[in-house]
Amino acid sequence: MTPANSAKERLVQTFKFLKELNELRNPVPRDLSGSEILWIATWPLHPCVQVRRGDRIEDDANDAAEVAMEPLIRIQRARLTPCPKPPQILDGWLKPGWQSVDEEAEVLKSRNFQDKEATITVSFADDRERVAALDAWTGARTKWVEAEAPAIVARKLFERIHALWTTMQREGDRIELVLADGMLDVAEQFIRHPVLMQRVNLEFDPSVPEFRFNTGPEKVELHRALLRLVPSIEGRMIAHFDKELEERPVEPLGGDSTDGFFRRLVQGLFNDGEFLEGKVHGVATSRPSIWREPVIVPRPRTAGLSTTLDYIVEDLEDKNTQAPEGLSRIVGVETKGTPEVATGGDGEMPRTQIGPPPDILFSKPANREQYEIAARLTKAKAVLVQGPPGTGKTHTIANLLGYLLSQGKTVLVTAHTTKALRVLRRQVDEALQPLALSVLEGDADGQAQLARAAQDIADRLSRSDAASLRREAGVLREKRQQLLDVADVLRRQLRDARFSEVEEIVLGGEGLSPIEVAKRVKADAERDGWIPGPLRPGILCPLSEAEIRQLYASQAILAPSDEAQLAVSQPMLAKLVTAEDFRLLAAEQAGANSRAQAHRPELWNRNGPAGYAAAQLQELHQRIRQAAAMLAEEQTWLREVLFAGWMGGGMQEAWQDLLAAVEALASEAGTVHRLIMAHGPELPQDRSAEEVTAMLDEIVTFLEAGGSFGLKTKLTRRAWHQLIETCRVEGREPRTLDEFCALRAMAQLDGSRNRFAARWRRAVESISGPTVESLGRLLERTAQGYAVVIRTRLEWRGAVWEPLIGELCAAGFCWDAWLAAHPPVAGDHGELARVQRAGTHGLAEIVEAQAALLRQAELSSALHAQRTYLAGFPQSDAASVLLQAQDTWNVENYEEACREIARLEGLRDAYERRLTLLEKLEEPAPAWAHVIAQRHKPHEASQTPGDAAAAWRWRQWLQELERRAAVSMTELQERLDRTEDELRQVAAQIIEQETWAAQRERTKLQAQQALMGFVQTIRKVGKGTGKRTPELLRQARQLLASARRAVPVWIMPLSRVYESFDPRETKFDVVIVDEASQSDVTALAALYLGREHVVVGDKEQVTPDAVGQRVDEVQRLISTDLQGIPNSHLYDGQTSIYDLAETAFGGVVALREHFRCVPEIIQFSNHLSYSNTIRPLREPLSASVRPALVAHRVNGFRVGHGKTNEVEAEEIASLVIACLDDAEYARNESGQVTSFGVISLLGDEQALMVENLLRLRLAPDVFAKHRLLCGNAAQFQGDERDVIFLSIVDGPPEDGQLSYRDAGAKDLYKKRYNVAVSRARNQLWVVDSLDPQNHLKSGDLRRRLIEHARDPQALLRAMEEHVNRTDSVFEKLVLQRLVAGGYRVKPQWPVGAYRIDIVVEGRTRRLAVECDGERWHTPEQLHRDLERQAILERLGWVFIRIRGSLFFRDPDTAMGPVFSKLDQLGIEPIGSGATTIPNEESGTIERIRRAADALRGAWQAEKIIAQ
Q: How far does the chain reach from its first CA to its final CA, in angstroms?
């Protein structure tokens, strides 16, 4: 079975179980019982009680104007008049009670009067005037009684309706009101119950005041479940009459039409059925009967759940239905593609980036958790969100709705109660509100809202098309991306700027905090501030200390004039005619005939190549002399070889043949050596090599031809075998061909050596060369050495001598003429001797003479060229002197100028070194390099002005501090705020465009027509008094059903969901369940309507308690119906849908920012239930009343084992009324009317007692105006009040201590206390009758709460003990300056979970001053600090930040922006001193207590009088 099919089977199994569970928990009532039933027939006939009965008879005339439907019932508060005052003559004669309409006015028959002397008895009848007065007064009183009796009954009815209204305010999410008629009586089935029912809403109009019962377009229902209890009634008949009621609707308070329907109904369902007219209430019947007896009765809100569960099972059994992923996971099936989502260590989602993800559009301020929810929903399709009290769940859902709408998704938002949903629609962007319809129980504006939404949708769709909206959205998305990029840059810049105040300034491996650096910069400025800036940041000085000393020392070596001359081009001394040469030239100039006498011009070619320098000619001559030495070779045989090479021809070839023989023998020896190494052959010594070679050739040839040795070869080749016997290979006789080849090669080598030796003797040894014996046994190796010598001599003439002579001739020398001048020399080698003599004797003088002439020419040319050269140095003083000396042949000036050039060249290294050091300094420190080069003070000396490393570090520090201070964090934050505001605006525009584009694409013509048809139909209904009203309302309901798809977002409680949507036809893209911890497992039916799910709740708050549920039967159901379902034991009706989702949805996204309560209040819950992970964001003084907690002890007691404490109840009632009468409690900090609530921490009875006391003394409009509600913790969950009164209820024990109250089973009490405390926004009164030290044990929840109320700072102090509160010198100095300026300041100002360094208070504004740079502000803390500031700025705080690195360097400059901001905000100096947060009870509390005491005293007096 595939996972998808398995999931569907399990879900069918689960939903069938839920249907049975629902039927078990909500059996159909067979009769009406209880005081909550309102029997309309018993109501008085009085103008204040108006009931619209009978069929509608007015014409339908409302076609256009929006007119509210006329209520069915109106009940006003009847005005009572006092009894007529009796005449004075009757004084003392009337008996008590005459003022009451329920009593008769009676007189005393006689009275005793005391006279001076005796007692006199006087009879009433004795005085006729008295009797006449009584008769007259009695007549007037009788008329008053007749008129006042119905008014009093009407007043009591009003009070009863008031009680019902308060009950609906408290429990309206659990029960609903139904107007019913057609009392069916079936005695054998014990049935006596109405069969015609219509839901009504009870509303209160405080302006009249008036209670109203309205039906709106609610459908009139036939009580089919009741009829199905009668076995004799056929189902088809029930369906028949249900259809008739749908087609021809009648009303419970209708006239003849309703009578006719009841008559047809009872006669159609029963053979003996009877419609009774005028049936008297309480009279028994003998057969099935129906009679008219209209009632208003409360019933549980479970009407639609059973049908919804049936439809879900039917839908799942359809093969085309796909089970939602989230539900599949709940029943234990991992469907394909369900992604796993990583969670943090404590179950939270992992952190994401600081900036908003580019693909998630939120139009409202959002925190990290909200982005995580959207991101995870995209990936996992199911998200579990923990929302502790007051953490912005509604805001989160509203933000999420905009994002989902922009994706074209349809959304259902639901909850167990309407409290959490009531304000959601208002949180949605105004442009999208028409698309988000809120349908809440008892919401008088619901139908009008629907009509307006329909009209708005139609209008918007008529003037736009999807394509243009998409294009506009595309342009906006591009703009948003640009803004995202800008915001990202600003965020990084701001983060870097913030980090720069704690990030160490690192230089040369040393890191110091900016504040420490600032202190050092200020302290060392005079000593180390001599290096001018700017410097290249972050580097050490590029010059070492030695180099800096060398640079400054160069100023003593180099005069400024020397630098000036060295800075310009100077002639190079090496390129000038030397002073000696110049002196020579000068001398030659004086004696031009003095020439070199050895010059032989006839031997020099005048037309030879020019440009041959004298030095080149002299060097060539030296090489010729060295080469000529070879011609004087002393060894005869080598001289012979040299001669053969000189002469060439056959003589040279003979020696070349010898060289070839050497090479051949060496090659052969190499080959044979390899064979010798391989086989180790040994030849006989007594035979010649030639003989052995010849015989071995025969053997090898024989073997190569395939022959082999044997008897035949021994007989025919005896010589072979004799040779073989004398040869050895590896110490044995040879056997193989290879071995004989090796022997033959060795024999051949011996032959070759013999022949080479003979040739050597003839060629070398014969002319006195080395002997053969001197060559050794391996003569080829020694011969190779001699071959090199021989080859050098043979090739010497062509390789050495002739190129030299050619070069000499190229220089212009006539070698042939010079050689011819030398006669031949006798001897074997005479030619060599003649050449040797020509190359040595006399040639030197001739060449030197020629070189001297060339040198003279060169010097003359050099002087000419030198003039041109020196002309290229116009700025050189020495060049100018040289030119003048050269022109005048002034040797002394020439020599002096040369010495100056030499001196400058001697300074060149120092100058170049100075330039190198300055150049090395120029790029990282241009200003410093400049002042050194220009020798400005104090840089003109040859010593440094101070420690260069310290000065460099000082300047680097100063620069870095100035660089960091140049970045304005305030400006960056303001730019970022503006950008983020614009981002949200653009996001809202994108959401609007894309949402309406999707709406345009989704809404077809049929849905549009249905929407407008609904609007027009509701208009026709008008006041609802026309004849066609029932039919029009029926059509309106049908049109609404058809138009539902035109509204993408529906907001309604679970009960409405089950009545409004058919799961077979309606599916939402996303279902969001809020306050999921209050919803039991039946809420799975709502989740089934969605493809994706967001479950928002809190397991630390009140969960379903299944009061009255039959536990054993539920367990039996679970064991039989949920086999194989994971965690089936959790389906017991006491487990919330939140807990169930937690088993399957993975990690929890936890909302932690608390916006509701002031910190003192929420800290109790934070400590009790959330391990101090909640971050309160309200500051203590933001509340409109103080103190935040009031512990109020009374001397009360708990009545028996009940759940009431009358003393506490009266005390709370008096305190509430005292607060209502006190001007300080009139409005809250937002200017709205202060709301009040009373919560009983033990059952409902105490809350009802307080409510009854308040209803006796407060008008309903006061309840409505102040949203005054009394109830238990569960009834307040999802709601809040400005002021809450908690009643502990328990009284002192008779002895000892009360039994310990811990968290309770399933943390029941802990959850109650958490919810109860966290309902109070501004003030929480804890009213108790206990001494916590003596009556309660340590750790008891009651004791913990009472002690917290008495000392709310205790938990906060305990938290602060864990926080590093190191005194900040920086903050103290800033505070001193602000105080000195006359401002009122407060250090370490608490704002919820956060603290602000310093707060400056004005009369109406405050400024938050943050001091950046202290050592405990780590980068990690700064990251959280950025988030903290963003949160607090959302709450309205204005921040200014002071850099410690600037303050400790220049405090006046650092404080300047602070004072400017104070002026800008209008915060004036109003006195110094820190504002303290009062912990003691204020005068307001004492005033309230005194007023309450007075009220209770008056009430007590009233009781005494009444008695």
A: 79
Long-range pairs for 556-560: beta carbons < 8 A, 24 or more residues apart: 556/942, 557/907, 557/910, 558/907, 558/910, 558/911, 558/914, 560/935
3-class DSSP assignment, residue 1229: coil
Angstrom distance (rounded) from CA 885 to CA 889: 6
By the 10 Å C-beta count (0-12 exposed, 13-18 middle, 19+ buried), 1041 is classed as middle
CA–CA distance, 1142 with 385 (Å, rounded to integer): 9
HEC assignment per residue over 672-720: HHHHHHHHCEECCCCCCHHHHHHHHHHHHHHHHCCCCCCHHHHHHCHHH
pLDDT, tens digit (0-9, with 9 covering 90-100), for 522-548: 889 889 999 998 999 888 889 999 999
pLDDT tens digits, one per residue of 77-133: 999 999 999 999 998 899 888 888 888 889 898 988 877 778 888 898 888 999 999
DSSP 103-141: S---B-SEEEEE-SSSEEEEEGGG-HHHHHHHHHHHHHH
Burial class (CB in 10 A: 0-12, 13-18, 19+), 921: buried
Residue 527 backbone class (left: φ over 0; alpha: ψ -120 to 50; beta: rest): alpha
Confidence of residue 1487 (pLDDT cuts 50, 70, 90): very high
Alpha-carbon torsion angle 790, 794, 798, 803, nearest 10: 40
State yes or no: pLDDT of 1115 exceeds 70. Answer: yes
Place of tokens 């549009």: 1008
Q: How many CA atoms does the CB half-sphere of 1276 hold within 13 Å?
A: 35
What is the pLDDT, as a whole number, of residue 441? 57
Q: Lowest-confidence range among 335-339, 1181-1185, 1349-1353?
A: 335-339
- Is residue 761 within 8 A of residue 772, CB to CB? The reply is yes
Tell me if 1159 sits within 8 A of 1186, measured CB to CB: no
- pLDDT tens, residue by residue, 674-698: 888 888 898 888 888 888 888 888 8
CB crowding 269-288: b at 16 or more within 10 Å, else e: bbeebbbbeebeeeeebeeb
Q: Rounded to whole angstroms, how far apart are CA atoms 371 and 359?
A: 10
- Over 1437-1495, what HEC string results? CCEEEEEHHHHCCCHHHHHHHHHHHHHHHCCCCCCCCCCCCCCCCCHHHHHHHHHHHHH
The region of weakest confidence among 832-846, 945-959, 1237-1251 is: 832-846
Contacts of 1452 by beta carbon, 8 Å cutoff, 6+ apart = none
Rounded distance between C-alpha atoms, residue 284 and residue 271, angstroms: 19
Residue 1363: band (very low, low, confident or very high) from pLDDT cuts 50, 70, 90: very low
| Alpha-carbon separation of residue 539 from 503, 602, 925, 956 (angstroms) | 17, 75, 11, 8
Buried residues in 1106-1133 as b, exposed as e (16+ CB within 10 A): beebeeeebeebbeebbeebeebebbbb
Residue 484 in 3-state DSSP?
helix
CA-to-CA distance for 617 and 861, rounded, in angstroms? 18
Rounded to whole angstroms, the Cα distance separating 1030 from 198 reads 12
Distances from the Cα of 1329 to the Cα of 1201, 1290, 1486, angstroms? 16, 7, 19
Q: What is the pLDDT of residue 1478?
A: 42
Phi, psi of 994 (to 5 degrees): -70, -35
3-state SS of 560-578?
HHHHHHHHCCCCCHHHCCC
Secondary structure class of 1073 (helix, strand, coil): strand
Tokens of 1400: 């400056």
Lowest mean pLDDT among 32-41, 730-739, 1075-1084: 32-41
pLDDT value of residue 260: 93
H/E segment holding residue 670: helix 649-679
Q: Across the strands, what pairs with 201?
A: 214
Burial of 424 (0-12, 13-18, 19+ CB in 10 A): buried
pLDDT confidence band for 206 (50 / 70 / 90): confident
**Segment holding 16, helix H or strand E:** helix 3-25
Amino acid identity at 862: A
